[in-house]
Design brief:
The chain is α+β, with helices and mostly antiparallel strands. It is built from two helices and four strands; from the N terminus they run E-E-E-H-E-H. Helix 1 packs across helix 2. The radius of gyration is 13 Å and the shape is globular.
């Protein structure tokens, strides 16, 4: 799958900034920056990985800057970044950026 660089989210409290880049190596390379990484880092990574995999993205570099986002916000921001990176809508039926 061909990806282009994309971003979604903000650095506001309770949000998360997600940047997706084309992969330099196979697999998902997730870089997490969060003040709560010790407590919730595994869960944040799990939600990011699951969401990207559901969108068909298995090879990407992902920079995640968390500001206390809930799982639903993480999923929404990752989905938005994935849509922008692939050009596919969330159902994979239409091209967003024709």
């Amino acid at each position: 799958m061909q990806l282009k660089e994309s971003v979604a989210g903000t650095l506001e409290s309770g949000d998360i900034l997600v940047r997706i880049y084309p992969a330099e190596t196979p697999g998902l390379d997730i870089h997490l920056q969060s003040s709560v990484a010790l407590q919730f880092g595994e869960q944040i990574r799990r939600v990011v990985t699951e969401t990207l995999t559901e969108q068909g993205i298995t090879d990407a570099t992902v920079q995640v800057t968390d500001k206390g986002a809930l799982d639903c916000t993480i999923r929404a921001r990752v989905t938005a970044a994935a849509v922008r990176a692939t050009g596919d809508d969330v159902w994979g039926r239409d091209r967003v950026n024709k």
